[in-house]
């Protein structure tokens, strides 16, 4: 299960879609697929709207979260288009029914797509407000019997403090779940993280802005930070 933030789709910008960046991400995903790996993807929508931010500005939280879910569908369609331009067979499934643009999420159908060699993109989060796309990614990973959640970020792992602000920040090559929780490292929201821990699902945090890193992670190279690897 690959978890991509919406921000990754904006390239160097703060908002919107950057086609060259999306095409580069798609090319990296194809490299993973060509290793014989079944690929599922969940995307955030922060490059278009963040439900939590809109809520803090005074918007009704549920409405703001639904808007965020719709943003993930836009990103999902963009990634699907890039993957199909590379001759990849893909399916976009959404947790909110919108039959004109995507399939509804049906677990058995998603599994069947994987069996047929298709890449499956899950959009619209869990379909419920108050849940993040991190939680959606872990939930879908558990449902698909994924072996790991690959959390793509713009840093090369988990640090004890922000490496962009502290020169002495220390990177963790590996963490167990409880240590990550006790340190308050914010790898994922608490609901998502707890779901990973309960299902012994490791998380690999890595830098997706460096081309080829997705394949390196899948091939077992020591890139990024593995959370919970020793617990599985």
Task: Walk me through the structure.
The strands form two sheets. The chain has a nine-stranded mixed beta sheet, sandwiched between helices. Strands 7-8 form a two-stranded antiparallel sheet. It is an alpha/beta fold. It is globular. The chain has one domain (2-231): Carbamate kinase. It has eight helices and eleven strands. The longest helix is centred in the first third of the chain and has 25 residues, at 61-85. Helix 1 crosses helix 3 and helix 5 runs parallel beside helix 7. It has helices spanning 19-33, 51-56, 61-85, 107-115, 133-143, 177-183, 190-198, 213-218; strands spanning 2-4, 40-43, 90-94, 103-104, 119-123, 149-153, 158-159, 171-172, 174-175, 203-207, 225-227.
